Amino acid sequence: MGFYDDHVVPRIVNLACGTKDMRPHRDRACAGLHGEVVEIGFGSGLNVPHYPDAVTRVTAVEPADLGWRLAERRVAGSRVPIERSGLDGQSLPFADDSFDTALSTWTMCTIPDVAQALREVRRVLRPGGTLHFVEHGLAPDEKVQRWQHRLDPIEKRLAGGCTFSRPIATLVADAGFTMTELDEFYASGGPRFATAFYLGVAAA
Q: Which segments in the chain show pLDDT lower than 70?
């Protein structure tokens, strides 16, 4: 990672993903989290205020040191103990069956090998554990999809590897999860190529 990815992208993500419009989606994604939680792509801790009371501990997987520094105030003010442990969602340093629930918010778009990361999340979840997520991805409309594919190379350069066109629900299912809840919709507040959202829960 270079200077731009290390020092600029985490600030962009903190601002772009920290808007008021995102909060209801975070609330919905975090609903039902409980017990020991592993959060993939913790970023600057924007989900911290949305953790339900049933969460007892959060293990944060976050590659960007600056992202973790930006999260310091939120982590310090959290009623839930939060520990950064792990830098790479593709290779989680945890034993099998370690967590009750997992959380991913606007993260699957960026992980280079997202299929491997999802297999890792499934491995570290206890039997019956659930992955809760909200992501942007491949739109349902072909016209929007064409724009997503055209813009992917630019988005990857500007946003630290992020892409618009990943088929999130398919990727989750292909990793061995069983989808129990799924809502696909265009979120307000942005162009459709960037706001085709997937919000759901999948069981390991």
A: 1
